């Protein structure tokens, strides 16, 4: 293999693919990136056996071929080369070394054979549709914070994507929950998503998709099967295994009968929660909300360091109520709301609370209370 490629193209591509590679690997080939040159382009591929990213960049191919070299090392070398450099990659006849040349810099990298590199893309995809990149990014941004990190409930370690009928229209919905809070967001279902299986996309894959959406105006291609998802962003193709499990019936958790409505300025509320929670212990993080007519008092008591209270003006005309929440969870949800006014629908101190944007119901959040 002998190929010449511009540093900017190679660096951008390596930046996408090298993130998949785990720093510590018991299988040596998984530390490597696959380089394949043919027909005026260089194709890069990296995988951790659950997630695979490939990207194609333009290149001048003198001799087609393929090999694998350490991903993180190659990324660091290319990152440290000067802007505008032309990089030449050539394999030696010994089959064990790749020479990298750029200006006066020369590197010799150990290779592993291309034949050892695993392929994740086998299998057929039953559903195919296109989606605006902004829609997918929005669904992920609104729900990602609620993904569970508890490995025992592995089926909660991702975002559940599925289609639902709502008010006579088909919606493409994302849901995530960790048992303490639930986030749900939806957009118009794209043509071709009808009848798709409900899928759970793993946390790591979700994070990579979020980083790969660089142009919100672009259309991305999504292909699905029962076990895999493949998303194409221009020259980048991400393929991932799905979580093999059943997502719980989240509809039962979303309260329907909460009759106490509280409206509050989102920014003012978030700032007040942030200020009073300064006093809270790292372990407890509890903030008490005392709701009365036209006013909300936030309070925190920490036996080790003191107490804090702050009053916020609100719209509320139901019975007075005291309820406690984890302050970090409140701030996470406030950070996802888009309008200036947040709406809380409350029932009692022991029941889940529903939170959403005023005049906008395409995203909603459910928060379990804490004892305070």
From TrEMBL:
Ranges where the DNA polymerase III beta sliding clamp N-terminal domain occurs: 1-120
GO molecular function per UniProt: 3'-5' exonuclease activity; DNA binding; DNA-directed DNA polymerase activity
Chief place where the protein resides: cytoplasm
Coiled-coil annotated residue ranges, if any: none
GO aspect biological process, one term: DNA strand elongation involved in DNA replication
UniProt xrefs under Pfam families: DNA_pol3_beta, DNA_pol3_beta_2, DNA_pol3_beta_3
Segments forming domain DNA polymerase III beta sliding clamp C-terminal: 252-371
Subcellular location: Cytoplasm
Keywords: Cytoplasm, DNA replication, DNA-binding, DNA-directed DNA polymerase, Nucleotidyltransferase, Transferase
GO cellular component: cytoplasm; DNA polymerase III complex
Residue span(s) of domain DNA polymerase III beta sliding clamp central: 130-249
Protein family: Belongs to the beta sliding clamp family.
Subunit structure, as described in the record: Forms a ring-shaped head-to-tail homodimer around DNA.
Protein name, UniProt field: Beta sliding clamp
Organism in which the protein naturally occurs: Methyloraptor flagellatus
Gene giving rise to this polypeptide: dnaN
């Amino acid at each position: 293999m002998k190929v010449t490629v511009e540093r900017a193209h190679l660096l951008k591509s390596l930046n996408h693919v090298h993130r998949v590679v785990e720093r510590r690997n018991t299988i040596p080939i998984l530390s490597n990136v696959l380089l394949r040159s043919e027909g005026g382009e260089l194709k890069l591929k990296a995988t951790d056996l659950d997630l695979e990213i490939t990207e194609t960049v333009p290149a001048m191919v003198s001799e087609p071929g393929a090999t694998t070299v350490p991903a993180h090392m190659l990324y660091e070398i290319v990152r440290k080369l000067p802007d505008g450099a032309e990089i030449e990659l050539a394999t030696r006849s010994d089959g064990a070394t790749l020479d990298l040349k750029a200006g006066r810099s020369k590197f010799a990298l150990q290779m592993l054979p291309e034949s050892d590199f695993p392929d994740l893309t086998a299998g057929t995809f039953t559903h195919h549709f296109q989606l605006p990149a902004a829609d997918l990014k929005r669904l992920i941004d609104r729900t990602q914070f609620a993904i569970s990190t508890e490995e025992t409930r592995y089926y909660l370690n991702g975002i559940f994507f599925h289609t639902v009928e709502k008010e006579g229209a088909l919606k493409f919905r994302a849901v995530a929950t960790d048992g303490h809070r639930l986030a749900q967001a939806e957009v118009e279902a794209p043509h071709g998503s009808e009848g798709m299986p409900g899928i759970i996309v793993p946390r790591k894959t979700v994070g990579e998709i979020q980083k790969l959406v660089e142009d919100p105006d672009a259309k991305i291609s999504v292909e699905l099967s029962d076990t895999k998802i493949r998303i194409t962003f221009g020259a980048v193709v991400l393929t991932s295994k799905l979580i093999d499990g059943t997502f719980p019936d989240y509809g039962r958790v979303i309260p329907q009968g909460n009759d106490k409505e509280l409206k509050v300025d989102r920014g003012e509320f978030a700032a007040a929660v942030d200020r009073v929670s300064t006093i809270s212990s790292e372990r407890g993080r509890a903030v008490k909300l005392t709701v009365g007519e036209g006013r909300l008092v936030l309070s925190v008591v920490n036996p080790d360091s003191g107490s804090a209270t702050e009053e916020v003006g609100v719209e509320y005309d139901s019975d007075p109520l005291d309820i406690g929440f984890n302050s970090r969870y409140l701030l996470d949800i406030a950070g996802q709301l888009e309008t200036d006014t947040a709406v809380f629908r409350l029932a009692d101190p022991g029941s889940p609370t529903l939170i959403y944007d005023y005049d906008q119901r395409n995203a909603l959040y459910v928060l379990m209370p804490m004892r305070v």
